[in-house]
Specification:
Elements (H helix, E strand, L loop, with lengths): L7 E7 L2 E7 L7 E5 L10 H7 L4 E5 L17 H14 L5 E6 L1 H12 L4 E7 L6 H8 L3 H16 L9 H11 L5 H9 L2 E3 L5 E3 L15 H10 L4 E6 L19 E6 L6 H4 L1 H11 L1
Length: about 290
C-alpha cells in the first residue's frame, strides 16, 4: 500500500469547543463530508478521501472527544451534541447541499442530521450506522427507569477511574489495533495508529479519544422520535453492512424501510469497518452510488 499524502488541518468552534477537521482541497468541487465512528478519528478515512478528492471537496471532522478535537467538561457525550457540531461545520463552511459518507456512530449522527435537514443532504451513505437492532432495543426497553439510572451511575463511576492505557511504543499500539480488527493489514493498522495516538510526557503512547465517549447517555431522544426522523430523510441513501459484523441487516429487520429512497448493500468478508476490510469493493459501491 503506497504512502498517503495528507490533507490540511483546520479548527472551528461549536458550543465553545475547539474542534478539528481536515480538508482534502479541491474547493470548487461538490462538497462531501466524511464522518467517523466512536473512538475513531478523521484520518481513518484517508484511503476513501484520497479516492474521492479529485471529484469532490472532501472534509473530514474529528468529532468532539475524538482525534485532535477538544474533550468536553464533564462526561456526557450525546448524539444531538454531535449533530449540532456537524451542523455548525456545514453552516460555517457553507457546505450545503452536500453528500455525506459515514460510519457507525457517525452514521447515526449523519442519519439524524439528514432527517432534521433533508433539504441540505444530496446523498447519504451510512456504514453500519443504524445502531442497536430492534431486538437489542426491545431488551433495553424492558429495563425499569430506576434500574437504568443506577446502571448509568455505575458506568460513569467506573469510567471516572479508568486511566488511558499506555503503550511503550507505536508498534504495540498498532498490534492492539489489529487485535480489534484482524482484517487490517500491517500498513493500515500502523497508519490508523499514528494518527490515533498521542505521546505522553514519559514517552509512552495513549489513544487520543476521551474514555467518556464509551458511555451511553442516561437520557436521549425517544426511539419513536428517532425512527420518525429516519422517515424524513428523502435523499438517496445507501446503507452498508459487513456480513461478519455484529450489526443486523437493516433490510431484514425492517429498519431500512423507514427511509424513503434506500439501498442496502451487504459486503462479504467484512466486519464493522467495511471501508477498511474491503476497501476496493466499498469504493466500487460508493462511486456507483455517488
Amino acid at each position: 500500500m503506497s504512502a498517503l499524502t495528507g490533507p490540511t488541518s483546520h479548527t472551528y468552534f461549536s458550543q465553545r469547543l475547539r474542534l478539528h477537521y481536515v480538508d482534502w482541497g479541491n474547493p470548487e468541487a461538490p462538497p462531501l463530508l466524511l464522518v467517523h465512528g466512536g473512538r475513531d478519528h478523521c484520518r481513518n478515512w484517508d484511503w476513501v478521501a484520497r479516492s474521492l478528492c479529485k471529484d469532490y471537496h472532501v472534509i473530514a471532522p474529528d468529532l468532539r472527544g475524538h482525534g485532535d478535537s477538544q474533550w468536553i467538561s464533564g462526561g456526557t457525550y450525546t448524539t444531538m451534541d454531535y449533530v449540532y457540531d456537524i451542523a455548525q461545520l456545514i453552516h460555517q463552511l457553507k457546505l450545503a447541499p452536500l453528500r455525506i459518507v459515514s460510519h457507525s456512530m457517525g452514521g447515526g449522527i449523519s442519519l439524524r442530521y439528514s432527517g432534521i435537514y433533508p433539504d441540505k443532504v444530496v446523498k447519504l451513505v451510512a456504514i453500519e450506522g443504524m445502531g442497536p437492532s430492534p431486538e437489542m432495543i426491545a431488551k433495553r426497553e424492558k429495563t425499569e427507569i430506576d434500574s437504568g439510572m443506577r446502571g448509568w451511575v455505575k458506568q460513569m463511576r467506573k469510567l471516572s477511574g479508568w486511566q488511558p492505557r499506555r503503550y511503550p511504543n507505536i508498534e504495540e499500539a498498532a498490534n492492539r489495533m489489529k487485535e480489534a480488527n484482524p482484517h487490517l493489514s500491517e500498513a493500515q493498522a500502523l497508519h490508523l495508529t499514528i494518527h490515533g495516538i498521542n505521546q505522553n510526557e514519559d514517552g509512552t503512547f495513549s489513544w487520543k479519544f476521551d474514555n467518556y465517549v464509551r458511555a451511553f447517555p442516561a437520557t436521549g431522544m425517544p426511539m419513536q422520535d428517532s425512527l420518525d426522523l429516519n422517515s424524513k430523510i428523502n435523499c438517496p441513501t445507501m446503507l452498508v453492512r459487513g456480513t461478519e459484523s455484529w450489526a443486523s441487516d437493516p433490510e431484514k429487520d425492517g429498519r431500512a424501510a423507514l427511509i424513503q429512497n434506500v439501498r442496502v448493500e451487504n459486503v462479504n468478508n467484512a466486519g464493522h469497518w467495511v471501508h477498511h476490510d474491503q476497501l476496493d469493493i466499498f469504493l466500487g459501491l460508493l462511486n456507483d452510488f455517488l
